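Please describe what follows:
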Amino acid sequence: MDQNKELEKKIKRLREDYKIIFGSEEGQRVLEDISIRCHERTTTFSKDNSHETAFLEGQRSIFLFIKAMLKSK
């Protein structure tokens, strides 16, 4: 159980770090740039190239992870 508590503390600290970094005005601008570059609001599907679709979806996945870390828990 101690290992689980340590992991929970680490995740909580990391989540707080994300909020500090992206909570500033500068961080919000960077987050918006990442949103655009990682295709948050556009399709990642490429009808001609499944590898490109997978690559773009990987980028989008990272952005969605960052957004999830910024949500309050």
The CA atoms of residues 36 and 58 lie 14 Å apart.
